[in-house]
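YM 10:42: 4-hydroxy-tetrahydrodipicolinate synthase sequence, as discussed on the call
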Amino acid sequence: MSAQTTVITPLTTPFTPDGELDLVAARELFRFTADTTGQLMIAGTTGEFPALDRKERRQLTELALEVGGPDAAMAHVGAPDAHTAVALTRDAVSAGATRLAALTPYYLPAEADELRDYFRRVRQAAGDAELYAYLFPERSGITVTPELFAQLAGECDLAGVKLSGSPSTEVAAYRAVLPAEFTVYSGNDALLTTVLDEGGAGVISGCSGALPEPFLELAAAKVAGAGADELATLQERVDRVVALLGPSAGRIKHALRVRGLPAGSSRMTVGAPEATTAAEIEKLVADLVG
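YM 10:58: structure's back
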């Protein structure tokens, strides 16, 4: 396991041109991440999880565990309903996963009691595995305030949370109402140093799937107590990556291809970048990693 846990990579999922899961390509991508950030989040939003069936999610989890081991892999088990989330959780745990993340139920609205039931059922199925909640109101349709989340975390024995979308800039508010040992990650790649300053553990960075180097360099410098000038220079590199790759699986996959990695195609509505953007991504990769 990589010693660093400040940057976790939610991996893209490679598919063949006809839309089938490409496990050969996935193995190479997983190895690249195991050798860089050393932290793999499987079947998250960047990984197009809504387009994956139960068998495929288990296959990807098994592959991540084989490549990186249980300390390096976090399996996403969230689903629109508790029944499916419990089944996914059991699959992941039986495969050997010890760290899980579950998006809130989505599509239909859920009241506080329904959220409690969902997370309690997933928690029970998780056994001894750590369970992280995944809050993304813009995609799930469900907003969980810091105060409500603090109740859910205590009642459902949650170990941590990933804050995405609008909550990704509210680390301090969630951190303030949670126990000191609780782990808070942000999905906002650009705010790594701010997240750490506000008591967060780091970022779950989609952009690090293709260009992990700037994020790892900034994280290491921040943890080591680097000065403001050095941090500003490193932040500029991170900002450039985030501005160009952004929350776009298509752009991340293009950057992977430029690096010579097998990004594969997509199942969901993920288009390739247009020519000008593609050229900018190619220059970015050349500038940052040669």
